[in-house]
């Protein structure tokens, strides 16, 4: 049996995934968590008891500690643990970032149950699960990273792709209208640290203020219009 931990803050989503797993026949629930810290604690307790899961299904939009932070921490402590990221966001927003942080795959929650089961089985065997859409995003990232024949390099990549993981977190919250204080509280950072990130983000995206940053995010289809 493939032992799976589900980490998602919506109870109804967890219930739906549990039903999908139960119908598969060869997949068993090893535990569930509703926020980032609980997800970390659940995996650690399982590992301490010699029951490390075969796969972790991890939502990106998790309270207290988001999914990408949890992913980064999990791969640091358990580098061979397959983590399949789940998200309602378009692939272009988080798929490549997730894979760069060590995810074994990225699956949009709009996927059907057969695709989810296929993804779980694949990553449990140590393979990557990549949809055609994610493959397209990866190809674009590779082209941008390696440059064209003329050697333009990263200049071809969207400006926001130059942001670090933490900068991208702050960028999305700023674009969503959050204040420095609110972001500091949500990410458990000092306001001064968030202000430093904000300055870097404005510089890297070539905008002057938060309004222009929000407009940039909308133009890049990173936020709803």
Structure description:
- With 225 residues, this protein is an alpha/beta fold.
- The chain has helices at 11-24, 36-48, 67-77, 91-100, 113-124, 132-146, 165-175, 180-187, 191-205, 210-219; strands at residues 2-7, 27-33, 55-59, 83-87, 105-108.
- It has a 5-stranded parallel β-sheet, with helices on both faces.
- Helix 2 (36-48) runs parallel beside helix 3 (67-77), helix 7 crosses helix 10 (210-219) and helix 8 packs across helix 9 (191-205).
- Mean pLDDT is 86; it is low at 148-154.
- Tally of DSSP helical segments: 10
Largest sheet: 5 strands, parallel
Tell me the fraction of residues in β-strands, as a range: 5-15%
Approximate helicity band: 40-55%
Are there runs of 5+ residues with pLDDT below 50, and where?
148-154
Mean pLDDT: 86
Strand order of the largest sheet: 2-1-3-4-5
Give the SSE string: EHEHEHEHEHHHHHH
- Strand runs, count: 5
Query: What's the shape?
Result: globular
Structural class: alpha/beta
Intertermini distance: 44 Å
Task: Tell me the radius of gyration.
Answer: 18 Å
Keywords summarizing the entry:
225 residues, alpha/beta, 5-stranded parallel β-sheet, 5 strands, 53% helix, globular
Outline of this structure?
With 225 residues, this protein is of the alpha/beta class.
Per-chain topology:
Layout: E1 2-7, H1 11-24, E2 27-33, H2 36-48, E3 55-59, H3 67-77, E4 83-87, H4 91-100, E5 105-108, H5 113-124, H6 132-146, H7 165-175, H8 180-187, H9 191-205, H10 210-219
Helix pairs in contact: 2-3, 4-6, 7-9, 7-10, 8-9
């Amino acid at each position: 049996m493939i032992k799976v931990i589900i980490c998602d803050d919506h109870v109804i989503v967890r219930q739906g995934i549990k039903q999908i797993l139960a119908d598969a026949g060869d997949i068993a629930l090893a535990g569930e968590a509703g926020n980032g810290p609980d997800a970390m604690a659940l995996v650690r307790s399982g590992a301490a008891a010699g029951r490390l899961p075969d796969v972790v299904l991890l939502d990106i939009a998790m309270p207290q500690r988001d999914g990408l932070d949890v992913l980064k921490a999990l791969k640091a402590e358990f580098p061979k643990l397959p983590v399949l990221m789940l998200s309602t966001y378009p692939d272009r927003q988080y798929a490549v970032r997730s894979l760069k942080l060590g995810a074994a795959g990225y699956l949009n929650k709009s996927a059907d149950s057969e695709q989810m089961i296929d993804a779980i089985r694949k990553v449990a065997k140590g393979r990557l699960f990549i949809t055609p859409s994610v493959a397209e995003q990866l190809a674009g990232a590779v082209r941008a990273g390696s440059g064209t024949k003329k050697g333009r390099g990263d200049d071809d990549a969207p400006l926001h792709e130059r942001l670090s993981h933490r900068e991208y977190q702050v960028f999305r919250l700023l674009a969503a209208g959050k204040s420095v204080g609110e972001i500091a509280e949500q990410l458990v950072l000092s306001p001064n640290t968030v202000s430093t990130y904000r300055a870097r983000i404005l510089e890297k995206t070539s905008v002057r203020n938060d309004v222009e940053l929000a407009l940039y995010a909308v133009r890049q289809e990173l936020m709803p219009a």
